[in-house]
Structure formats: structure tokens, C-alpha cells
Design a protein that fits this description.
mainly beta, four-stranded antiparallel sheet
Length: 101
């Protein structure tokens, strides 16, 4: 988690999706809650360092935040939004490692 916190500090004041040198790994940062975004989510692991996110799969709604994570094992159509974020405590490092499956 120290690595994630350090990266959050480096990206201070920046918002959006940031690709890393490790191809399937990226970070997302936001200091405000977001609108719902509809997407097709590929298999991967999602971890939240700070803030809160809600994801909806059909009628099921999942909330994840620090100490929780989301694992997507197959490609799925999801709707998601950041529900808890502020300039003092931004939504930080939803990092996803996508598998090549």
C-alpha cells in the first residue's frame, strides 16, 4: 500500500487515467464524485487506495473502498461511478491489472 500512497502523492492535482510502464497496470484519480460511466470491463483486479466507488452489474450493485477490492473474471458490461472523493481525500488508485485472457 505504500507504493499506492506514494503514487497518489506524485499525481497530486492531476485527474484521470494514467498508464504505467507496466502495460496492463494503470491508475485512476479523481477529487470529485463522477457521473455514471457505462463500459465493458475486461477481466482484472481493482483496488481502491482512498475514496469509494460503486459498480452496477444489471440489478446488482457493489460498493468497494479501501480494504475491499473487485475481481472481474470475465468480460462484463458494467456501470460505475466514484461516489466518495474530495480535494482533501481524492479517489485514489483504482489500479487494475488486466489479464490477457
Amino acid at each position: 500500500m505504500r507504493f499506492l500512497r506514494a503514487t497518489c502523492t506524485i499525481l497530486h492535482g492531476l485527474f484521470g487515467v494514467y498508464q504505467t510502464a507496466i502495460d496492463p497496470l494503470h491508475f485512476i484519480r479523481s477529487d470529485t464524485p463522477t457521473d455514471v460511466i457505462h463500459t465493458v470491463h475486461k477481466p482484472g483486479l481493482c483496488i481502491v487506495e482512498q475514496g469509494r466507488k460503486q459498480v452496477q452489474l444489471w440489478e446488482e450493485c457493489y460498493t468497494y473502498y479501501p480494504l475491499n477490492y473487485l475481481v472481474v473474471s470475465v468480460t462484463l458490461p458494467l456501470a460505475g461511478q466514484v461516489t466518495e472523493a474530495s480535494p482533501e481525500r481524492p479517489y485514489c488508485f483504482h489500479c487494475r491489472i488486466q489479464s490477457g485472457l
